[in-house]
Write a structure and sequence with these properties.
This protein has 224 residues and is α/β, with parallel strands linked by helices. It is built from 4 helices and 6 strands, in the order βαβαβαβαββ.
Length: 224
């Protein structure tokens, strides 16, 4: 049996002072806290001592680092690749989900939901009707996972993506339904959803938050 792990990493906090649902829009970079989150993940994977004085950590065997083409994902991947002497690869299949509300404030009050023209896009939460179907997100994410697993066979790969694609991929591999309450996602900023394989067979799913100490007070991320 050849053991391989593919970590799905959600990027760190984004600088988004206007509170927009930024989706796939270019130019959304990590905040200072977001950069600190990325470094915290890199340190955890590289086995660097915990700044808070916790127990010694084991160095992971990362041989592949690949990110979504969006700036926030590339910036999150950079310190991890540097810690292992690797280049950051780019895979379009890891990109954020397409969303009709991209570039808008999403909500009532002064948000886009005030306008009846947008209401038809909310008619089907199961697909969902406002954006890229969940099934299509899972298909492209699992294709990226398969490619990374082949590259890192016998080692570990880190794929930097976005909250919704990571979460629906986890739901799919665990055999759960894809439609869900967004408030119940277990996929915090800079979290790792780890898919463990023996040869090509998935044998386990893990979840960890290497940047947990930086989460309190982090800004809500729209279009993460």
């Amino acid at each position: 049996m050849v053991a391989t792990t593919v970590h799905l990493l959600r990027h760190g906090e984004v600088h988004n002072p206007d509170g927009l649902l930024y989706g796939r829009l270019p130019g959304y970079r990590l905040s200072e806290r977001g950069h600190a989150m990325a470094r915290a993940v890199a340190d955890a994977l590289a086995g660097e001592p915990d700044a808070a004085g916790g127990p010694a950590r084991t160095r992971h065997d990362v041989t592949v680092v690949v990110a979504s083409p969006l700036q926030r994902a590339q910036e999150t991947a950079a310190p991890i690749a540097a810690a292992f002497g690797l280049d950051v690869g780019t895979d379009e299949r890891l990109i954020e989900a397409a969303n009709h509300f991209q570039g808008m404030k999403f909500g009532v009050g002064d948000g886009s939901l005030r306008h009846p023209t947008h209401w038809p896009y909310l008619r089907n939460p199961f697909r969902p009707s406002w954006g890229e179907p969940y099934k299509e997100q899972v298909d492209r994410m699992l294709a990226a996972v398969d490619a990374a697993r082949d590259l890192a066979r016998g080692h570990e790969a880190v794929l930097v993506s976005h909250q919704l694609p990571v979460w629906v991929t986890r739901l799919a591999v665990e055999g759960r339904r894809l439609w869900h309450d967004p408030r119940r996602r277990q996929c915090s900023l800079a979290s790792l959803t780890s898919l463990r394989y023996e040869d090509d067979r998935l044998v386990g799913v893990g979840y960890s938050e290497p940047a947990a100490a930086l989460l309190p007070g982090a800004s809500p991320v729209a279009g993460a």
